[in-house]
Design a protein that fits this description.
Helix content is 57%, strand content 13%. The protein is an alpha+beta fold. It has a three-stranded antiparallel sheet with strand order 1-3-2. It is globular and about 25 Å long. The model has no long low-confidence stretch (mean pLDDT 90).
Length: 75
């Protein structure tokens, strides 16, 4: 039981405004990995680049992530 509680404590909190499962997935991926390119996210998450660009645009508009060159990272 202690391991479960520790795992929950280490999980980053999701912003309440994120409703889309894909947006949540991408946000958690970036908060866990620190930064990634669209290609890296596509390979790791099994998402198409077109879908990722849409999600990343939404996350940037909400000031939840930043773009630095080709890489995206949480704010």
């Amino acid at each position: 039981m202690l391991e479960t509680e520790t795992a929950y404590a280490a999980t980053p909190a999701l912003p309440p405004e994120l409703q889309s499962p894909r947006a949540k997935l991408v946000y958690l991926y970036l908060t866990t990995n620190g930064h990634a390119t669209v290609g890296e996210m596509g390979d790791s998450l099994g998402m198409k680049k077109l879908s990722l660009y849409s999600v990343l645009k939404t996350l940037r508009e909400r000031d939840l992530i930043d773009r630095n060159g080709d890489a995206y990272a949480p704010t």
